[in-house]
Every structure is written in C-alpha cells, then in structure tokens.
C-alpha cells in the first residue's frame, strides 16, 4: 500500500520498542564485554538454526513482483491526480523496502525505459550528453535510485541539482524516480524549497508482517510456533487451528525493531527460525518418494535473539562511513574517501570492524549496510547527532 509521504507511520508499538532498545544498546556499549562473543543463544536446547535448504522453504527471498500491482495502481492514480502539474512521480522509501527491484521489474512489465546510473564524469557535469540522452523520446522512463546519481563532494551535487530543476520545469516527460529516504532527507535539507509530491510504501505492522512472512513459506500448511511455550507466532490460516493456543508478541517486536521495513524484518526472521535436527529436508531420488517435510517451524523468543550492535567505544570514522553508505546506497573505498574525507587506511579499518560486526557487506557498488544491522545503525547515527531519515 502506497501513501503520501506525510501519511506514513511507524508500527504502533515502535515508540516504546525503540526506547527499550535504545536503553539496551546503551547498556551493551557501556559494558563493552559481550561484543562478538561466541555464545549459544539457544540455551543448549535440541533445536538448531535452519539449514540453507530449509531456509529456502520456510523463508525464501521475497518476490518483489508480487507488489507490482499495488505500485502500478498507485502510480496510475498519482498521474491521474498530479500528472498535469508534476510529470515525474517520486517513490521514497527506507533502504531494504524493495522499491528499486520493483521499479526495474515494472520497466520490464510495461516496456518503460530504464535509466542507467551516471558514471563519475556525468555526476560532476551538467553537459554529459550520453547520460541525458536517455530521457529523449515519449516513452515513460524509470530511474530506480536517485542516490546513485550524486556524491557528497563540492562538485558531486551538480547532476541532481540539474535533474531536479529539469523535472520542475517539465522538461523530461513522464517518469518515475525511486529514492532512498536518506538521499531524500539530504536533498530536502539542502533545498528546502523542494515541493515535489511524493509517495511511499506504508510500513508493515505486525498483522501485515505475519501475513507476508506466512505467505513466503512454500507449504500452505506451514506453522510457526514459539520454542518456549508453543504459542503461535504467525497465526495459522485455518481458524480452527488457533483454538487453545495463544499468539505471542514476537511479530509486534519484529515489526517495531524493523520499523516495518520488509527486508529488515525478513533477515531477522530467518535468524530466529529453528527446527528439530531430524527435520532436515531429504530429497527423493528419481523414481522414489521424498521424505515428508516437517510442518512446524519453531521460533526463538525475541529476548533470546542476538541482534547486531555497533563496536564498543566512540568512533567518528565508523559513523562517517555508515552515513555515507546510506546516503548513496552503497560506495566503494575510493568514493568513501571522497565523500567522508577520511584516509583510505581509516576506511579499511572501519570497514573491517563493521564487517566483523555483520553491519556491512560487499555490494555491487562496493559496500553497503546489512539489512539485519540497519536498525542498530540508524539508532547509532541518530545518537551521534547525524541527520537521519524520516522513516
């Protein structure tokens, strides 16, 4: 479901959850003893994390094509209302919302023109003819991520300034721009006169999150139960199965921790799933019947999960690196040097520390933050005084 930017809201329990998490994070960083500890979060029980094969059955990657119907309907309605005033639609969302993937798929579905990101030369100039020529013609165009079109350097703002001006003047025809919430926050601060109409996907609350995670499972009879007392985590689809079983608060905590962002919730969800050792999937060979899958997947309680946290102590280089990665939706070491002003040695050390903490990982553009680590990173940057996104 897409809504105007000013109608976006966090899951209802997020304020309380965020306060509790912030206190826990402060205490963890103050103690500085348990970071990267080799501990068994299951408490020695008989359950074990799911194998790769089991994860592909219980919690496979999301098919972003399933969200195209809502996106296409939202775009059609938006153009009907605003198309005469603003021919380019902006879709702004937090990282890991699937907007870029969905827009690329939408291009293929509708035969629209996909705008490739500019190279360094085009970013620093307004007369890069080969890049601007992509907008020529009458076909609707799509730019999946505005964050890939600029660098936070004195000359790296040139192209996006020109792009926004051309859009305001109606020079580029009908198009769609996907934009990270961190990029949007920067440009709204830099150019407060921006008054473009913007849409955003509404955050997933615990009900919608449970429905989505349940639908990802490949078997319609799949059950998700809490390891401690057997209560439902994802309510079963058959109403009769819910009798005599209460529903846990796990999904409320997950929705709050993830701030309703789908891939953030999904990555944490996969870490929480458990199975009996004998429940491993066994494939049948040709001419034989495969072993029947276990129908129940177990979920550890929220307070037993080990969630990523920032390395202990104060480190401004870490903060600068993380903030740059989020604003540009991924950067390599050289572009990190340009945008942060740090030496390459400091950048390499920071990336090594962050990767050990599972907060960054290799990315097609160099490096980017991990989905599971995103909530802790956002909270950390906020406490360090950085301008965070509005999501």
What does this structure look like?
- The protein has three domains: 2-63 and 204-282 and 291-304, no CATH class; 86-196; 316-369, Arc Repressor Mutant, subunit A (Orthogonal Bundle), CATH 1.10.10.
- The chain is 40% helix and 12% strand.
- The protein is built from 15 helices and 13 strands.
- It has helices at 14-31, 52-58, 68-82, 99-110, 120-123, 129-132, 158-168, 181-190, 206-216, 250-258, 262-272, 316-328, 333-340, 344-356, 374-383; strands at 2-4, 48-49, 88-93, 113-114, 141-143, 175-180, 198-201, 223-226, 232-234, 273-275, 296-299, 360-363, 366-369.
- It has a six-stranded mixed β-sheet. Strands 2-10-11-8-9 form a five-stranded mixed β-sheet. The protein has a two-stranded antiparallel ribbon with strand order 12-13.
- The longest helix has 18 residues, at 14-31.
- The radius of gyration is 23 Å and the shape is globular.
- The two termini are 16 Å apart.
- 38% of the residues are buried.
- The model is unreliable at 29-44 (pLDDT under 50).
How many beta strands in the DSSP annotation?
A: 13
For the termini, the CA-CA separation is 16 Å
Approximately how much helix is present in the residues? 25-40%
What is the number of independent domains?
Answer: 3
DSSP summary: helix tally: 15
Shape type: globular
What's the story with the biggest beta sheet? 6 strands, mixed
Give Rg in angstroms.
23 Å
Low-pLDDT residue spans? 29-44
């Amino acid at each position: 479901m897409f809504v105007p930017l000013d109608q976006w809201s966090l899951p209802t329990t997020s304020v309380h959850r965020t306060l509790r998490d912030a206190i826990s994070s402060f205490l963890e960083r103050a103690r500085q003893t348990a970071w990267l500890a080799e501990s068994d979060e299951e408490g020695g029980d008989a359950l074990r994390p799911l194998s790769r094969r089991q994860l592909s059955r219980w919690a496979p990657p999301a098919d972003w094509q399933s969200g195209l119907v809502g996106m296409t309907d939202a775009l059609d309605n938006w153009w009907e209302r605003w198309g005469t005033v603003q021919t380019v639609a902006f879709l702004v969302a937090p990282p890991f919302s699937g907007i870029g993937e969905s827009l690329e798929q939408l291009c293929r579905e509708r035969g629209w023109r996909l705008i490739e990101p500019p190279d360094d030369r085009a970013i620093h100039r307004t007369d890069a003819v080969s890049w601007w020529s992509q907008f020529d013609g009458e076909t609707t165009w799509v730019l999946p991520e505005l964050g890939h079109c600029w660098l936070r350097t004195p000359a790296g703002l040139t192209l996006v300034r020109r792009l926004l001006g051309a859009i305001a003047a109606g020079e580029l025809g009908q198009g769609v721009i996907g934009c990270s919430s961190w990029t949007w926050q920067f440009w709204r601060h830099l150019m407060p006169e921006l008054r473009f109409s913007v849409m955003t996907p509404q955050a997933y609350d615990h009900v919608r999150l449970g429905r989505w995670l349940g639908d990802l499972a490949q078997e319609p009879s799949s059950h998700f139960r809490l390891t401690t007392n057997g209560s439902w985590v994802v309510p079963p689809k058959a109403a009769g199965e819910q009798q005599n079983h209460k529903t846990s608060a796990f999904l409320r905590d997950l929705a709050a921790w993830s701030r309703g962002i789908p891939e953030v919730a999904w990555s944490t969800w996969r870490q929480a799933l458990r199975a009996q050792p004998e429940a491993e999937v066994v494939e049948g060979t040709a001419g034989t019947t495969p072993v029947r899958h276990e129908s129940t997947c177990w979920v550890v309680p929220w307070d037993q999960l080990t969630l990523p946290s920032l390395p202990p102590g104060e480190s401004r280089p870490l903060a600068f690196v993380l903030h740059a990665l989020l604003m540009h939706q991924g950067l390599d070491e050289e572009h990190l040097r340009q945008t942060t002003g740090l030496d390459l040695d400091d950048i390499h050390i920071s990336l090594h520390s962050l990767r050990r903490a599972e907060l960054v990982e290799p990315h097609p553009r160099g490096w980017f933050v991990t989905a599971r680590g995103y909530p802790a990173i956002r909270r950390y940057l906020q406490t360090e005084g950085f301008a965070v996104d509005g999501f």
